[in-house]
Write a structure and sequence with these properties.
13 helices, 375 residues, mainly alpha
Length: 375
């Protein structure tokens, strides 16, 4: 059957339009990936603020089940309770925390130097560990040259100027790092409060940006993501608190110095699945070895108990309805994001994967429904 000239022109136009739309889509996707790559730290910071807002909203909802108060009042009560708890920790244990943190830092450095010496004694090359900063103090103490008895000479003006510029450079580096950390903290805090005060405003804004024909689907996905993240964050807060308490009390019973700060770091690292538990256990064991092999072995057994409590008791009971992600898949995704984006990717891999899982499950369910209807 011959094809008319008009039909051939229409087919060419349709093909050209499809190629143009596909090219524009590919270009936009590449631009989006480039933007995300260059501004990953900022995007992760915004996402952390959103997670804080979801956590505050979840705690506000839990309080609403107990006390039937308006949402703004319940949010104010939650924020005041958290601020009072933080202020109490700082006021009552601020000095102790600072002292224990200093002792822990020196202990970890000393233990890493001991590990390096032990490995080198058995012929293991440790040059790739970059432990020179940890061993420099001990090496300076043992190999330091005897003080010179010759007449001291005043440094030249150029030496004084170079030393002053180096000191100023290090000072500005420390100030910049401190300001960056404090600034990031307040950015996350402000974003979290802003999201928690008016969550419906931001939800409606996301729905408004979606195309009208897909708005119902986007509404279901956004609500499921919010519900999943709320349940996961509440379960994670309970798990982190339990890990902190068990680690703190267990180390105090064993007699390990800096037990409180070690408990805090173990609880905070419990936010990062698998990797956080390994890092927390490594720090606990290294710090405990300074008190002897018996204390180190006891701390290792305690770490195994805490890990078993977290993995086989708390996570299955508290988070059984929150997330269902295979451990190997989660670990691979954590390593990937950690290598590409650093500490932000490692810490926020699980909530990002939870969002992706909700979206994939939604489209899978839609496809199954359509196949059932067509059959």
């Amino acid at each position: 059957m011959p094809v008319s000239t008009e039909e051939r022109l229409q087919a060419r136009n349709d093909l050209a339009w499809s190629i143009a739309v596909g090219g524009i889509g590919v270009a936009l996707f590449v631009a989006l990936m480039t933007f995300a790559w260059h501004f990953a730290a900022t995007l992760f910071l915004i996402f952390a603020g959103m997670l804080l807002g979801v956590a505050l909203n979840a705690m506000t909802g839990l309080l609403g089940r107990i006390v039937p108060l308006p949402q703004p009042l319940r949010l104010a009560i939650v924020c005041l309770a958290l601020a009072a708890m933080l202020a109490g920790i700082v006021v009552l244990g601020g000095t102790t925390i600072a002292q224990q943190a200093s002792v822990l830092s020196n202990t970890i450095k000393s233990q890493l130097a001991n590990v390096k010496t032990f490995l080198e004694g058995y012929g293991v090359d440790t040059s790739f560990f970059d432990l020179t900063s940890f061993t420099s103090a001990s090496s300076h103490g043992s190999d330091a040259p005897a003080p010179s008895t010759s007449t001291p000479h005043l440094p030249s003006a150029s030496t004084i100027a170079s030393s002053g510029s180096a000191i100023l450079g290090q000072t500005f580096k420390v100030l910049a790092g401190t300001l960056s950390a404090v600034g990031n903290f307040f950015i996350v805090l402000f974003l979290g409060l802003a999201f928690a005060v008016q969550p419906s405003v931001y939800r409606n804004g996301l729905l408004f940006m979606a195309p009208a024909k897909h708005r119902a689907r986007v509404t279901v996905i956004i609500d499921r993501i919010g519900f999943t993240l709320e349940r996961w964050l509440i379960a994670q807060i309970i798990t982190m608190s339990a890990v902190f308490l068990v680690t703190w009390i267990g180390l105090a019973v064993i007699g390990i110095p800096s037990s409180f700060i070690l408990g805090i770091q173990a609880g905070l690292l419990a936010f990062v699945p698998t990797v956080g538990a390994i890092l927390g256990g490594l720090i606990v064991v290294l710090a405990s070895l300074a008190s002897g092999w018996v204390a180190g072995l006891s701390a290792f057994i305690l770490f195994l108990g805490v890990h078993a409590l977290e993995s086989y008791v708390l996570t299955p009971i508290i988070q059984r309805h929150a997330l269902d992600i295979p451990p190997a898949t989660l670990f691979a995704f954590q390593i990937l994001l950690g290598v590409v984006f650093g500490i932000w990717g490692l810490a926020l891999a699980l909530p990002l994967m939870a969002i992706a899982k909700v979206i994939i499950d939604h489209f899978k369910a839609e496809r199954m429904v359509s196949e059932t209807v067509s059959a």
